[in-house]
Every structure is written in C-alpha cells, then in structure tokens.
Structures
1.
Amino acid sequence: MTREVRTVSFDADLKVEAYRFEGIMQKFPNHFHDYYVIGFIEQGKRHLLCKNEEYIIGGGDVVIFNPNDPHACEQLDGNTLDYRCINIQPDVMRQYVLEITGTEYLPCFTPTVLFRSELAVTLHDLHLMIMEGQPDFQKEEWFLLLLEQLLREYTDVDTPCSSQEPAAEIKMICEYIESHIAQSITLDHLSQLTGLSKYHLLRSFTRQKGISPYSYLTTIRINHAKRLLEQGMPPIDVAFQTGFSDQSHFTNFFKKLIGLTPKQYARIFLHETGSQRSADITA
C-alpha cells in the first residue's frame, strides 16, 4: 500500500501556510479558497478545471489560484500525486504588495498554470525553508523575490482581483449564504428570496460564479471552519457553528476540500509560541 503523507505548517514570520501532499490519490471537487494558493506538482499527472478552463498538469508545473477562483482536479495516470503549495491570506498579500510595489492592492494573477516553470525550483526551496522552520532572513528574502517576479510577469495592475460583477440576484444569494452558514438553506428558499425559478437560479449562479449554489455554501462553511479551528475551537463545536449535521459529516467535507481532517488541521495551531508550527500526518 502506498505511504501517504500530508504535512501542513504555519510560518509566523511570513504569515503563510505551507502544505505538502505526498503519495495521495484524492480527487478534489469543485471548490474555492478565500486566499491565494501558489503551488507546484512534484510528481503525478492531473486534470485541472479552473474557471471553466481545462488543463493537464504534471511534474514541474506551477499553479496559481486567486481568492474565489473555482477549481477541481483529479489524478489521470493512475500514479500518486506529490504536491506542495503556499497559501497567502488577502490581507497578508496586500501588505507584501505594498512593500514590493509601493501601492496597496490585491493582485489578480492571470495565468492559472505556468507549464514547466523555472519557478517550481524556487518554490520547492522556499517551501523546504518554511517546512523546516529556517531563520526568517533568507526565507523572507526568497519569498519577496518570488512575489516580485510573479507580480511583474503574471499580473496586470489595471485588472482588479475580482470577476465581472454578478447579477443582483446572484449577489443576493451569495450575501445570504455568507450570513446564514449555520442555518439550513434550501434551493426553494433561495428561489423565493430572488424570485428566480430553481432551474434558472441554478444555471445562472453556476454560470456566473463557476460553482453551484450548494458547492458555494459548502466551501463558505469550510473556509469559515478553518478560521474557527485556527482560534482553537474544538471540531465538534465548529461543525455545529458552520451548519453541518454532525461531526462525521463535517469531517468528510473538510477532508474532501482541504485534504486534511479538522483535527489534523487544528493540530498546527495548538501551540502559539515559535515562528513555525506544523503537523505531519502519515497514512
């Protein structure tokens, strides 16, 4: 049986998360994050769907997801996936962009995939520094230089990091879901709220947001659950606070989208001291 390793670290110097998945076959359904993801494939071949564009990605390819970019992926070649990524919260990205450019804004990275990119080597070395908790001088220098190159080569300052403004009804649905995540939400209720038929609502929402209403709700719940776990709330309470019927239901959805169980993710936030905290989960 293939040895599966899932490692997650939080670096308090850079204020970023670093994930490493080794030997996994997990399929990730359509979802999004409320933060930036800069990752690369070490080994494995995957089919990636992002913002309705399809890609075949493999070793040496770099992927970049902006906040709220819907994406899904699954293995193609029957072999396992080795993958590393760095996650950057928007407020952290905003501060780094100000440091680098002198202007405070949220960038929109335009390519989703950088095929066979030389940046994969830089990302790999930086990722190792974060995972190993190395001193912040060289680590911060490499991180700033990496972001500077990405900003210079793969963004357009005139393009804000947001998609086209959704229709009023779709915006209403998003706002309702985001403010009622702990409650039971039905398609019937959303239809009554907007005056749209259920079918038209479903098609319009999916077309404009790139994700179905139910998947949007689940993703919002999981993103909120991450923040509660980071604050030390027990998983069983987080499940209740985010609208899941029970802890088992919550755990299944969390691992499906994040790649870790809630307990595994929360483990890195148990100790507040030190500049780097991590959890290594082997199966």
Note: The radius of gyration is 19 Å.
2.
Amino acid sequence: MPPFTTLPDLALRTLGGSVVAASDESFAEKESLIKPGRPGFLAETFGHKGQVYDGWETRRRREPGHDWALVRLGLPGVIRGVVIDTAWFKGNYPPYASVEAAAVGGHPSPAELLAAPWTEIVPRAGLKGDAEHHFEVADETRYTHVRLNIHPDGGVARLRVHGEVRPDLSVYEGLGLDLAALANGGLVTACSDDFYSAPNNVISPGLARHQAEGWETARRRDGGNDWLLVRLAGRGVLALAEIDTTNLLFNAPAAVSLTGIDGDREIELLPRTRLQPDTPHRFPLRHRDPVTHVRVDIYPDGGLARVRLHGHLA
C-alpha cells in the first residue's frame, strides 16, 4: 500500500463526510462511496433496480457527458492521495475516472459547489473492474470538497481521500479544545505497535462502539511497554486528559503515563497511573508549560478506546 493510505480518510462518513449530490444514482446510492469498511457483496441478490451493490452505480448513459459525485470532506485538509475502489463491479465499472477538489468556505449548497472553481488533482486515468486504484496527489492546497468524475458511467464501491487535517481553529479563539483530536488537526505520528487496529482511532470523533474502533496492540513478551506519539493540533497548554478504556474488558492496559514534548524537552504530564478496564478516566494535568507532542505510554500492552487532551493553544 502507498504510504499515504496510513493518513486519515478525510471523506469518511464517520468523520463527518457527506456525498451532497450526484448526477445520477439509478442503480445504487451515492452515500455508499464514503462508508467505512470494505464493500460487501452477495451474489444473486436482486431488488427493484437489479443486483444490489454496496457502492454507487449510475444508469447506462445514452447521451454525451459523464457522471459525477460531489463529496464534502468531513475533515478539510491537504490531500495526499486518493483511492478509487471498484470492488465487485466487474461488468459495470467505469473505464475512466478523474478527481477534482475545491476550497469553499461556509456551508455551500450543491448549486454553489458546482459553480465554484475546481482544481484537477487526479487526471483522467484508466480503471479496472473489482480493483483498488491508488493515486498520489502533489498539491499543498487546503481543500473542503472533492468531485469524483466517472467516464462515462458505471459503478464505484468506495472513494477514499487520504490527507492531513487542516481545520479552521480560529472559531475556538478564547476557548479550550481537544488538542489531540483528529478533527482539530491532531495526528498520531508514531506508535510501537498497531497489530489489531489503527492508532489514529484513539483521536477520532465520537465514542468507540467496539474494540476495533480503538487502538489495540499485540501481547508483549519482552518486558517492555507500548506507546504512541500524538502531534497536537498546535503548541498548547494541556489541562485535562481523558483516557478511555471502554470496550476493553480483558485487554485494557494496567497503567498509563503521559509525557509532553516541546523541542528537545520532555515534561512529565501524568506519572504512571493505574487504569481500570471498560472505564472512561479523567486526569487533571497540573503542568503549565506548552508542548507540541504527547507520548502516551501504556503498561505493558493492551488497548485504548479514546485519548482526549484538553487545553488551550499557546
């Protein structure tokens, strides 16, 4: 897999993404494009519109032109790569596709989006049926929306838009916020182990519904401990840490510690502290020096559902 696929999917529905409009969705609904998880398929499952597909499928065009879908990114940011997945579409996939992006402030309507200036970030490229197609993007612009164009018609199972979150934090001026949150620009930049699930899950929006929506490591046999490193949304002063082990019943860590990092300086924010399984923990932090990163150490291994680090931008 290309390195960009380790970055968050900015369009994902569970991160607030939305398919706001499409030229057509006669066979299968546009909303499936940004669903989490792999596309499913059950052969010979027919509805009123034909075979049921877990994806977006348009009619067969009998006129010039091409089909398109407008996607609002749940997390605006810099796009590093796009994945167009035609899983299960074998005789009805589009032979070509392209992707455009736009930066539109406020809460635009579909008509306003269509009238906005668009930049091509993935030139028209050939597609295969039942396959993932990876396209790297070299563009440092912050975007809020993308448009998937398929030429001329057909079905796409998933659209993934991987990148780095660039929110507008000015709305929090004078207020506290979760400086670790993915939605605010936080990012897990390193971790000791991601055997069971991705570390960026712990800073995702909302609550984890089950173990797979948190971060869980393999069982350690070497006497060490697992850890992850969070790059904060900005240099800031932290006042409260939330360490949530919800859903981790028999695989929660025994303890946790937090270390702030500012340049080459390390600051103990939370000494090694006992954790309980399946429990949201809240720990006041007394240190008032600003930091840019926080290392979360768990002892010796296990899983966390969420990590929240509340404070103020310095």
Note: The chain has a mean pLDDT of 94.
3.
Amino acid sequence: MVCERDPLVQKVCELYEQISGLESLKPSKDVNMLFTQLVVTCMPPSPIDVTKLCKRIQEIRSKLIRLCGEAEGLLESHFSTILGSYENPLHHLNIFPYHSNYLKLSLLEFNILTKHCSNVPSKVAFVGSGPLPLTSIVLASFHLTTTSFHNYDIDPSANSKALQLVSSDPDLSERMFFHTTDIMDVTNALKDYDVVFLAALVGMDKDEKVRVIDHLAKYMAPGALLMLRSAHGARAFLYPVVDPCDLPGFEVLSIFHPTDEVINSVVIARKFPMTKHSADQQQPMKLPNKFFDIEMFNPLNHVNLMEELDIQEQLSGSF
C-alpha cells in the first residue's frame, strides 16, 4: 500500500497542508506559486496508483481535488472578467496562463473525435463549461467551425461571463449557447447531441461522477459519443479518475494519457445502440468489440505507445 513514505506523496501532502491553510484561493502570488508547485510535482509520468493509497492519503487526495477545483474556478472567473472588459475578448485569450494547454488539449480531443466520428457533429454539448469555456471556444473557432455548441453550467454568473466573451463575435455568438441548469435536470434535450463533453470537475468524487455518467447513459442518443476528462498516475491528485467500469451503458473506445503539460487524460466512449427488445427494458445492447485502446500520448516527441486491454476485465460486473 502506498502511503506517507513515498517522496512524491510526502511532497503532495506538504503542499496540501500549505494550500488548505490559505485564507483565500483567489489568484494571488502565494496561490499561484503553490498550485504551480503542485502541478509540477504531479506532472511527470508516475507509476503511482491512487486506488492503492492508504485511507489518510485518500482523504487528502479528495480534499485536494476539491481545492484544485475551487481554485481553478476562481482563476477562470478572474480572467473571464478581465477578458470581458475588452472590446473583442476573443482576441486576447492568450492572457490566460493556461491558454496554450487548452489549445493542445482541444486539438488532442478533436483528433480523437475524428478517429471515431465519421461525420462532423452538428450539435455538441459541453457539461460544466464554466466562466471561461475555452474548450468550446477553441473547438468552435478552429476545428468544428460549423458545429453549434450548447454549454451547460449550474452557475448563472459563470454563464453570464462566458456569454460576454462570445457576444461580440459574429460567428461564435450564432453558434454558442449557454444553459443555466443542473445537467441532472436535462433529459430529452440530451438526445439532440452527437457528442457530449463532460468537464473534469463535474462530479468531483467518484459517486458524483458516476451519477452524472449514469444520467447521460440514460438520456443521450444511442450511438452518440461521450468525451470525458480523467487523470493518470500522480495527476490523479489534481483531478478525478474515470475508469472504464464507471461507464456502463457505453462502449469505451479509447483512453489517451498525455505525457506533456496537458494534465488531463481523455476518455472517449460511445452510447450503446438499443435493440427494440432492449429499448423496452432500458438495457443497452452489448457489442462484440472487446478491446479498446490506451495510448500514452506525447505530442512533443510524437511517441505513441499503444496497448490493448481486455475490456471484459475492466468492465466485469458492470452490465
């Protein structure tokens, strides 16, 4: 069992103590420094398996993910407010410190999408878009230039700030929509989307995340794609992990683990088609394809290490 003796775990625990002692998580010199140290600590590829952490470290990890989520929300809100003060906010996105990461992550997600989607999606949903919906903006601007994006967030102030960013752009203002609602209250509308993106911080613990995924499995259109963000190795101290067994109702197609400064892993899955019989009983039809890809992806040196895993083992007991 991995516990306090691991140097990486020790460093993460030290940083957690410092971060949890801060008076505020709003952007400041101390906040920025501590979270930068945390990211740098967790970024290198690591064999650590967070499921094997002892209970005390598991609890610290859960609290740390929530602190990271809160800090990330405050950072995005801060920069969205600044960007909203410009006449053309989208011309100044590069002032956001992680803008280049979003460019890389969005390109990665687009490339993954094109491998599994034969047609350009006409309607996409992004769940948990926040005050600075950079993924939607980048995808809509550079990759899916005819697609309409429906952004869902539970926070009205987040959507208000996000709308301010695109309202002056003649193209995006026509293709980007913002819905202030809990995704758990959205039912039939989910059938309209070819692709649903689920933000990393929607459902910040396993139970919350699984509830949202189960809801999407119930209401998404059969054959539609679900793209989720996860984490791998020590990066799982920063974000929740989505395992294949968390996705009953979906066929897991690929899992990509970036090894560069893009922190999030990307999981893509397809909602199972429904047979007439299974539709009556709300049971997904199990497809014969038993393999999915796991790729370690480093765009800096173009190394792709792919291994195939038996999906039956990963999903045992899920159906």
Note: Strands lie at 123-127, 148-153, 176-180, 195-198, 225-230, 250-258, 265-271, 291-298, 303-310.
4.
Amino acid sequence: METLIALIQAHIEHAHFIIFGSLLLAGLNIPVSEDAMLFISGVLARQYPDQLPYLFAAVYLGAYGSDLICYSLGRFVGPKILHIRFFAKMVPPKRVEMIHAYYESHGIATLILGRFIPFGVRNGLFLCAGLGKMSFIKFALADLLACTISTIVFFSLYYHYGKAVVVYVMQANIVVFIIAAIMGGYLFFHVKKRRSKR
C-alpha cells in the first residue's frame, strides 16, 4: 500500500487518471482493490487539498464505471464467460445460485448491501446481475445509489482519519461479510428446498 501511495504521490498531477483507470480495470476482474483506491484517494486529498475534487471524481466514477463493466460482461457475454477460468474463479456455480437466491428474495437491496462487501463479492454480484438479465436501468440506478453512499462514506472516513480508521473498516467489512454469508447460505438452501418440492 505504501509503495502504491508513493508511486501515485510522485505523479500527483495524474493521480486521478491513474485511480480512474485502475478502477476500470477492476471491472474486468483485474485484481485492483476498490477499497485501496478509496483509501489512497482520501489520504492524498487530505495532503493535496487542491486535488480533492479530482480525486473524489476519479474514485467515484471509476468505481461506478467498474460496476457497469462487470454487469455488462455478464449481460452481453452471458454464461460463456463462466467457461473462462479467469472469471469462473470469481463466480463458481454455487455462488451464482446463492446470489440469484438473494436477488429473488431481496432484489435491489442485494446490490446496495453487496456494495459494502469486499473480498471479490462485489464483482461476483454485479456479474450475476448481468447473467440474470436484470434490467440495465434498474441495475444502473440501484448501483448509482449504492456507489454514491459507499464512496462518500469511505472517502470521508479516509480523508478525515486516514490509517487510524482502516482497522475499524476492515473489521466492519468482515462482520458484514459473515452476516451476508450466513444469510446467503440460508437463502440458497431455502430456495433449493422449495424448488425440489415443485
């Protein structure tokens, strides 16, 4: 993390382009951490106040663009994408079924909650929304709301508290992930049981 911050800091006048481009790559499942980009943007905005609007715009638009890319891959490439090992690891069949169960039960709330879950869950969620042919407008609007909330919250936390808050954010993410995994497991088996009775 320190190395990445130093690299971006050395090119501060281009930092917003680097962050925006990196996040778009994340939509293709290139291992770029949105959380790390939010942290870097917030910390650098504090150090370089004149760059604040550019850094926020870069991380916000990059995160949202990344989500739309991931959704579009599922929507327009379809199930064939799961035959590519690169993407198959991100959304194994059990995870696809679990996420579909979430969508069936909770709809848009799944996207909003999922936006706060790290560990590769976000991309799997967006890819599955595309695979499940969720309406593009519905996805784009729900994700716009979720992305706006999460970006403002995390950017503000990192801007005001920097490293001091990272541990708390990670702990909160783990708690949300565990709760979502338990709920997902329950929904998955509940939906499967209901289908087997038909």
Note: The longest helix spans residues 166-197.
